[in-house]
Amino acid sequence: MKKKIMGITVLMVCFCLMFMGRTASAASVSVDKIAYVNTAEKCLVLKFTEFSESGYTYTVTNMTTGKQLTGSVAAKVTSFSLPLGESYAANTKYKLTLKGNNNKELTVYYYTGDAVNGLSVLKNSDESLRVSWNVQNGTIYQGYDVQLAESGDSPQVKVLSKAEAGTITSRTIAASSLTNHSYGVYLVGYRKVGNDLCYGQGLAAVFDYVKKPGRVIGVSATPNSNRAKISWSPVSGASYYRIYKSKKSSGKYTVAMDNVTDTSATVTGLTGGKKYYFKVAAVGAAGSRKSVGKKSTAVSASIPVVAGQVKNVKLMLDANKNLALTWDRCANATGYRIYYKTASDLTYKKLANTKTKPYSLDALDSGTKYSLVVYAYTKVGSKKYLSSQPSRTLTFTPSKYMNKHYNKLLANGVRTIGYMGNKCIYTKKKYSKAVKTAFVNYKGYSSPTNYLIWISHYTQQVTIFEGTKGDWKMIRTFICSTGKASTHSPIGVSKISYKEPGWFYANTKELYVSHYWGRNSFHTRPLWNSGGVQDPTIGKPASHGCVRCYNQDAKYIYDNMPIGTTVVSY
To answer: Within a 10 A sphere around the Cβ of 23, how many other Cβ atoms?
Structure first.
């Protein structure tokens, strides 16, 4: 009774499977594939274009014994090697069914048997490939396929021969069908068993194929600050380009840039005032193999002498009390270019070209946060060459900065005297009381007495303050004459060390001498012994290092400034 029930159950299951097979049969797919038998490892190898998003199941059937192997492989694989182990038999047909979880399936037939060895791949002088092998048993397979697969996750398979007789032992692949690539080269025997084409023993090799690229033409060189832009026409088959440079047209060329994938590049680190020569070569590459084409003809570029980096960029107030930008003069600069950007800007925009400073920033929105940089530029002929180095970046909101740093901005407007040969760079303009007070207080100068003296060489003025550090108040200011360019006055912080009633010579004298830096002192202009003024110069550099004053001002310091009073000479 139990046997009868079991038999009915089996029949019902078979019926259901047959019904399901008719209503939901797997759909066969056609994909690019490479299939062969690795006879040394007793494996079935399959490389294919993936056709399932969520994995595969497989069934291998020995078509002689009917014995089966089943299993699964991970999602998105494009190749696998399936060991047959004890199920492997020579000269035997196998059927592999690979089914995706999307109910699509691929069927491949294999036929085992050792027939070939000695696979070799060589490149011919005409850029073609010669694939060779040895046939050791010509009765197993009817012919051989030579196949190429480009490297990659989903290899593009190229079947390059079909139905080659089993006695063929080489195959030439034309250069026209090849590109620079690392190829998998596969020799696969095949045999037709019944109505099924079976893939047989396979040998595999990897070959890095590279064509020698042609010569680069159309090369040009555009000079700029410490650099040159090199451009050229594209070369068919080039994987990348190599730029060479030399200081002589016929000299030794060294590699300036490599692995350039575009048709232009900028060579940096060049010296202004020098002439350079450049050549470009195309390079074909695949895997570890490279082939360098013939270098182009040389082109030259004379690198201009251009200003360097702008230093000491800072914010200050201009004459109209507007927020302004200033910086130190840059050698070789014809002018300066200011760039800005806000938080929403991806790149910097040009604010202005200017030859003068400070540059007023009153055009900026007072409530917007900005980043500013300054470049120097040098004009050579009709072209402006921008420095390769920007200044440091200033980031600020104008209104917030003004409110927080007003004294600093006033102080930043103060500068010292400059020299060009025997010429002094100074001004006849005078700082305001607010600027003078901000300068000494913001800079944090102190004095052991209740007084502080500031010599401004740039404005040729002496200013005297009373108070303490951070709370100095101006009590007297007057013009003076400091040292000439050849005998300029010392710069720095010192103190009044001692005093003398005067210096007396055969015909002249200087009175009310207050020493503040060695023999450098405050005193009157040179006077005749009779009392008249021997040298009336005042308000511009004229002394041998001392600070010349009107009589009453020199006497004020002599009478009222205690020994030890700090003197700021700037």
So the answer is: 7
